[in-house]
User: What shape does this take?
Amino acid sequence: MGASARAVIIGGGVVGCSLAYHLGRAGWRDTVLLEQHELTEGSTWHTAGFVTSMRGPDGPGWHARLAGYLPALAAMLRAETGHDPGWRPVGGLRLALSHTHVDELRRLARRADELGVPLELHGASAIMNRVPRLELSDVQAAAWLPGEGFVRPKDFVNALVAGAVAHGVSIRTGVRVTGVDTTGGQVRAVHTSDGVIETPLVINAAGAAAGAVGAMAGVVVPVVPILHQYGVSEVLHPALDPDATPTCRIPEQSLYLRAANGCVIVGGSRPDPVPAWPAGDAEPLAKARELAAPDEAAFAPLWQLAGDRMPELRRTKLAKIMHGVEAFTPDGVPLAGRSALPGLWIAAGFGLHGMALSGGIGRHLAEWITSGTPSWELDALLPERFGAPAANRDWTTSRALDTLRR
Assistant: This one.
């Protein structure tokens, strides 16, 4: 292994790979990305891939800005690498089933207008041709967001990596980080299972394991591993075309649907989210592509709602449940920026939104690191915002769970 690097990225998920690409593109060719498994084998591989610029009627502007960069990045990657980056702008629907949620959609439309996000409000009859296989008799209004869609995780990461390597970045898998040298109160080197890399700058993009990596440098990173599950149906007949089927969300039922390989992905939030701290001294994501046992009882209500919304699912078997770890913060907002330790940067805590935000975060931090002046002000994402309570695992866990329940 090389003895030195200008920057070391820890974590080979979509966020780390986006950072590698953007740092390389900015001219930092002497950058190394380290991943203890193969790329994406922490959380990225099991993500459903939704891309939405609007989190709700009170959605933050930073989310819209970061997610809004993804289409331009996908076009750039395709042009530079020749790879299909996996971005599918199929559009997204939000359905309202009650007067209260019709009002929510109106508020969402006003917020979208403020943020410059295209959004159209319609009645159920106006969207029937977009989703002819959905039951819409109880739908009172729908929001159509033409800029939404999904991204195929493997294709997106492959394109980012191809671009990063073309710009001179070194990608090293199967290398475990064992320590961070902070002699003199700043980052000096990264110790790994394959030797020591001297470096003045480390970016902790280790997802649910970001807390363990931060601890190696004596820095608290308040990221909580929490389980999230979604189901995948068997192939429908006729099969759904994922490149022509809009994504669909019903917020008041905490339900989402999207087409994938002729099947339907069914998911949503649960009222009793489950933290996934490993037992003993084990670290999150220590095993590659690890999933928890499906919680079929907790998933059953979502599958029932999905069958009500798409009646052919009642005659279709559930092929599998993906029950994996996602990384969350106490307020549900990612961590992105400098840590209190000179030379250590954080990019973690992107639970359920990593695919949508990864491109923008890679650009934002690469600009900040290389030029000192990022294009966007993202103070809401600064890692030190929680103060002293962040060092208490019970506090961070309970806050993260409370945020997910809302």
User: Anything to note?
Assistant: The first strand starts at residue 7 and ends at 10. The mean pLDDT is 97.
